[in-house]
Specification:
Alpha-Beta Plaits, SH3 type barrels, 4-stranded antiparallel sheet, 5-stranded antiparallel sheet, alpha+beta, 3 helices, globular
């Protein structure tokens, strides 16, 4: 099993989210979850002023680019390279993409090391913010790459899985 690195693909302008969705669909259909770990379109909060009104909006940090955390091999390269909207991998030779260095990832705010989590599968948690705020549920799945947990909540008398980001989770002790 090869080491996973971050790679950058160039897309048609304005197609970043569509490329991300297409790659995620392909990952699901071809069962590539072990090889393509994360697809990201980095966003940043920006305050825009229109007609004298300040509004917080999210803008793409790198328009025309999508970041992929994946293990590079011929099959994965082919799948990504032939995704609609992808023009190629960033690097001197599109057949041999160059992974991002640790320094490049740090300047973009991407963490390479695994975080130590304060919770495990089976823990009861309380959702601290968001739509599910103050909801209590039991952790069923932890996905460190997506920075989320799946919890079971009781909805209409049935156990229902809900995906919650790490930042919204508070362990119930």
């Amino acid at each position: 099993m090869a080491e996973a690195n971050w790679y950058v693909v160039h897309t048609y302008s304005g197609y970043e989210n569509k490329v991300k969705a297409n790659i995620e669909k392909t990952i699901e259909n071809r069962k590539l979850q072990e090889q393509i770990l994360e697809v990201s379109v980095p966003m940043q909060d920006v305050i825009e002023v229109k007609n004298g009104i300040k509004k917080r909006v999210q803008k793409k940090m790198f328009p025309g680019y999508v970041l992929l955390h994946m293990e590079m091999n011929d099959d994965v390269w082919y799948v990504v390279r032939n995704t609609r909207g992808v023009t190629g991998f960033v690097g001197p030779d599109s057949k041999q993409p160059v992974p991002l260095t640790d320094l490049e990832m740090q300047t973009m705010g991407i963490r390479n090391e695994e975080e130590t989590l304060e919770f495990v599968i089976g823990d009861m948690i309380v959702v601290a913010s968001g739509v599910w705020e103050n909801t209590t549920g039991q952790i069923r799945k932890i996905d460190p790459h997506k920075q989320s947990v799946t919890i079971s909540v009781d909805m209409f008398g049935r156990e229902t899985p809900v995906e919650i980001g790490f930042s919204e989770v508070k362990v119930r002790r």
